[in-house]
Each structure stands twice: as C-alpha cells, then as structure tokens.
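Dear support,

I submitted the protein below through the web form. The confirmation email said the job was done, but the results page showed an empty box. After a refresh the structure appeared. I'm attaching both so you can tell me whether what I see now is the final result or a partial one.
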Amino acid sequence: FPDVPPATVPVSARRPDLRERLHLRLQRHVRSEAFRPALTVVGFRGNDTDVVRHGVDRPEDAVLELVLPSRYSAVGVLASSIVATPPARTRRDAALAIGVPRSGPVISLLATSEQVIDTKEPQGWLIDACLRSVGRPTAPCQIPALEFPIALWLDRLMVAILNAPSTAPVAWDTAIRLCPVPGRWRSDDPVDLGRTLGSTTESWAALRSAAAQGSRSPVGVSPERARWMDDAMFARWCMGSFPDLASLRGDVAFLAPPTVAEHIEIALRAAWLAFSG
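What the results page shows now:
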C-alpha cells in the first residue's frame, strides 16, 4: 500500500492552547482596565472563556475561597501589577495573568505597555489561590512553624514600643505579657520563656485545623477560608500578614530598651533550640 501522509490540521482550525488563550485574555484585560486596580477570574471550557468573578474594591475576595465549577478545565486570573526595571528601578504599571489547569503546568504572563513576557517559576498567594480553586495542592511550605509565634510576638512588641510614651518605655514584664504562650507557663526568665515558646509551638497543620474549626483565628483567617486553604498556603498567608521577620527582629532590637532587647534575643535563641531539639 502507498504511504499515506498524516492528516494535518489547519492553523485556523486548531484549538488554541491555554497559554494562547490566556495571552489573548490578558491583552483584552489591559485594553479594558488600562492597569487600574482590578482582578478578574475567568474559567476556560472548550473554546469559550467566561468571566467567573470580578473584584475592584477588595480584589483578593474575587479569588479567595473560589471553587471552580467542574465544567471548566482551567482557571485564569488577570490582575494589576507593578514592575521595576533596572538600573534606576523605575516603576511601571503592568498586568499579570495566571492560568492553572486541573492538571499540568502553571502559566504566568506579565504585560506592560510594550510587551507580554512569560514569568519563570511564579510564586505568591495568587498562584496558591488558583491551585486551590481547582483542587490542587500548593507548593510545600518551607517556613518553620515557630516563625509564626515569633512574628506575632515581635509585631505586638513593635506596636507597644511605638505607642509607649518616652517617659515610660516598654519594660520586660510587658514583653512577657505579649509573648504568645499559655499564661500559666509565662516566666520572667528569658531562657525559660523562650523554651516554653519553642516547645509549645504547634504545626501549621494543627494551626489550620484550629482555625478551620473556629477555635482560633490567626491573622483574621475565617473558618471557611482555613478549610479552603491547604497547610502550605495557610502558612504563607499567615506569615504574609507580618513584615519580614529579620526586619522585625532588627527593629525591636534597635528600638526596645537595651535590657529588654537583650532578654528578647536570649528568649528567641532558647525558643529555636527548644523547637529544633
């Protein structure tokens, strides 16, 4: 029998893949929103793209707790962004598009007024939210659980320090009271206090479970939102509510009275030893 060449599909008849459809939707978003603060969630099904949600006042509410209906094969999010270009780090308006299928690689595109580019290894809460909306796990969490109570303590201390009158600076007993450990186990010895902090720290899974049951509400996470997240997203969301931990630690060390700052450092070192051991 003679060889029969394989059938070819005309380019015009080929179904565009997720990247192409996301690219087109991003261009449309830039034309319609003109980089204004907004977030649009779309669902991809067959050759159709539907707007699922749209948020302006609180854009994050458009995607958080979203469960993409089963008729859609992928979710897309289009949002305003800002880029800084070297060497002067000039800030420019941009728009971000994320596409997450129910299985397969995540797609992330960034548009400025001049071009659309692929971003490499996208990360952040938007990626986490898109993955959760299609029932996929988020990237593993690399944040030790102890960082959360430490951040909570240092953040409370910063508020107290900044609000204390110059004639009555924050004292060590105030720092003890603000430390997130059970009251009956608080000690005025910084080593004992730190050991208690490190040894009573719960895992991210336990913290999320408590939030999901409504028994705790760390950084204002509702039970519904905690159930929708997975442990890794929950951890990153909680830590994202605080400034960088190293910066917090440095600010407290600089602004607290010297004796208080020294006790806090001793307590933190003891906490890490207890947590790791």
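Response: this is the final, complete result; the empty box was a page-load delay. The chain is about 40% helix and 15% strand.
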